[in-house]
Fold each of these.
Amino acid sequence: MRAACAALSGVIAGFSALAVAELAAAVVRPEAGPVTAVGSAVIDRTPPALKDFAVRNFGTNDKLVLELGILAILALFAVAVGLLALRHRIAGSAAVLVFGAVGAVAAVGRPEGRVSDALPSVVGALAGAGVLYLLSGRLYPARSYGERPAGGFDRRGFVVAAGVAAVASAGAGLLGRRLTSAVQAGAEASRRDLKLPAPASPAPAVPAGAELGIRGLSPFVTPNKDFYRVDTALVVPRVDAGAWRLRIHGKGVSRPVTLSLRELMGRGAVERDITLTCVSNEVGGPYVGNARWLGVRLADLLREAGVRPPSEGGRADQLVARSVDGMTIGTPVEDVMDGREALLAFGMNGEPLPFTHGFPVRMVVPGLYGYVSACKWIKDIELTTFDAYDAYWVKRSWSRRAPIKTQARIDTPRPFASPKAGTVPVAGVAWAQHRGITRVEVRVDGGPWHPARLAPGAGRDVWRQWVWEWPATPGSHTLEVRATDGAGATQTARRAGTVPDGATGWHSVVVDVT
Ligand SMILES: Nc1nc2c(c(=O)[nH]1)N[C@H]1C(S)=C(S)[C@@H](COP(=O)(O)O)O[C@H]1N2
Ligand SMILES: [Mo]
């Protein structure tokens, strides 16, 4: 009984610590909460293979899994600390403080960490240690008067104290949540009220027929709500559009600039369809999407700031974009300034960027994987060199440069589908951004390649739908697809994993025709 109560007091102390930390984090900033801070520190230190495993198996839920894992571990330790406090009251409380120190170090050690980020963990740990000290005190036999209640300790006293601590902590936690959402409400209002400018240069018309209209085929434009999301943010940054600024500075910048969103949007917006792809996308994977972006040409801004690309004698060959959450993304200056539509985007499919996709402004560069081009929640652009600086993912063994590799994906039929014998449309999408797709071929069971019908192209930065009418015969069959890009290169059959610069190989699907 005493042991059970000791375990319970550990759990309540842990709960108090987290709840009070949540309240403090609401005042400091949400990212500084201990669970988020430790989770982010884990993400920062996750080896690429494990990160890819998590993205692959949990998808966008990888972060939820991580936070639940941390909470489960904390719960176990809370029980242990509660039991420890039964032996050594002081040692138990000291152990809680050690956990607080871990949270504090994790929070301050983040790329954008400040000393004040330690506060939530420290305050929370003090509260947790105090609660444990008080509760475990109730579990010791009453010494005075020699009058021992049955069971060796004051049960009523314990239950009352535990109840008070639990309720007070819940109150603190809820208040913290309220405060956080009040702070975020400002950013949400700034997004709701944002009026996007009309494009001075509208997107070229999408040719009729770009959408083949086949069941099971990915739509030509990926709706925002279905657009894949890949980032390291445990708490989605909610930036107030009015307070947002972008700074451009560094090597070869003769006229550094700082821009507000209003100034950026007043520069004459261009609208372009650009297909985004993640380097963590396996052959046949889901981390690719096509959207209509609204923004300004980054190259124009850079020229005005005095930047010249290396091919014109510029000193900086790398552009490092920094986000409000400390992500760093390094892009070749030459690519940004070679005439392609590299954008600082504020609109996505007709609305302001969703918070999850980088509100208020992100980068989009056709032809480069997201981790070397597509910085969300951007706040700073520094011109430097690849020799002088390695960005976030490069420090974690991904390549410095990573153009998107040519890929074709079979969307329908689905793996292990059982279509009826007869004509079965085999269809999907193919992409080779900034080179374009010129041919897609399909083969069955390793037989001859059949040319697929390509939907009319919407430009070389955009994926293309394709279909091949398959005269399917009963039995189990393997379908394979390969694409050829605008430079005439056909996708290699050689299978390679995503690390360090993107997967290769042909997508294949096994189906059972009935
Ligand atoms: N701030 C920030 N920007 C980021 C990332 C990130 O983790 N943090 N991830 C990058 C990666 S790896 C990709 S593939 C794209 C994904 O953009 P999306 O989530 O809008 O699809 O964003 C890029 N920009
Ligand atoms: Mo990515």
Amino acid sequence: MRNVICGRCVKCGREYEAVPNLTNCECGGILDIIYDYEYIKTKLTKETLAARSTPTMWRYRELLPVEESTPDTELRVGWSPLYEAPRLAKKLGICKLWIKDDGINPTASLKDRASAMAVAKAREAGAKVIACSSTGNAASSLAGNAAAAGLKTYIFVPSRAPKGKVAQLMTFGATVISVQGSYEDTFELSKAAIDRWGWYNRNAAINPYLSEGKKTVGLEIMEQLGWQVPDYIAISVGDGCTIAGLWKGLKDLYAIGFIDRLPKLISVQAAGCCPINRAVEENAPWRPMEENTLADSIAVGVPRNPDKAINAIRESQGLTVEVTDAEIMAAQKLLGTTCGVFGEPAGVTGAAGLKKLCEQGKLSPDATVVSVVTGNGLKDVANAIQACGEPISVPSDMEKLLSAFAEREIPLR
Ligand SMILES: *Cc1c(COP(=O)(O)O)cnc(C)c1O
Ligand SMILES: [Zn+2]
């Protein structure tokens, strides 16, 4: 890979050759992929990019850690829509708001960006089997992207994973192990199994290439905005790989001169499980928390990528905010009714945090903001019904319909 220099430990600075099955540093720290930006500048310009028709994350190959000969993965991952959301912006009292809907990815979450990268790197490593542990979305996206590439998967999920995600896993033909315990317990068992059988490891806190896949969400946001940098980008945080990836993408663009400043990140966690935000707020090392939220994808009590995430929030001079489950459910309804975007609980947590900051007067009225929806609501319909209610139920009878409307004082014109 001519564009990549090495993998460098974020804890101790030790450097490693960027081989396809690169994992952690000896010291336990996670590696960051280091690029040769001077070389990349000679290969990638805004014009060459604009002329490209590839509607996937692979349009940014020069900024991705893959060999030139490695094929694009099969599913159409990335290039998700960035919707302008004027009605919601007005409600929140900010100048401009865009919703980046990553729930439209092939397996319906932002995790597809990391899983497509995992499949590309597993191919380079000559692996036939990939494994991971996941709160649900990393699992279903790995299973889908690997199935399309003809690779076998072993997947570990906590038994609380919502049915929609488990249905995806079974449909994509993964070998699924539902672990009776927390995400932490799930992760530990997967790690032991991967060590034992030598499968390609798609655990985001171990495999440094995955956040390079996730960074494409940041690259796209900026290209879709015509390289006009927003003041803030709000996103939900669990393990921390997503926000770290987003930040990496933005910094890449800054390094090659595509953007001239950087936005501030808004890191949103659930009030019942917020070890990363708490560490930033207290300016102290992170400590484990219970996994106490209905937003299952970010119920991560022991974050696996806290260092990169905490660095990203600090470096961007970002904001942290915690939201309750009730606030997450309210955001689900708000995004649905004002934008027509259906997010799963963790998918709308970024928007819930943005709303809270606006209500607290922490953003100026001329702020420009992007809010990333990280996963689709169809993955978890039980929570959506809980958040948004049941329909009006009537027999097929006009009289009954009229009285149902009257009872609820439904406006009919
Ligand atoms: C995984 C996930 C997140 C958080 O990403 P992390 O890398 O764990 O911080 C947010 N939302 C959804 C829908 C996810 O699946
Ligand atoms: Zn190290």
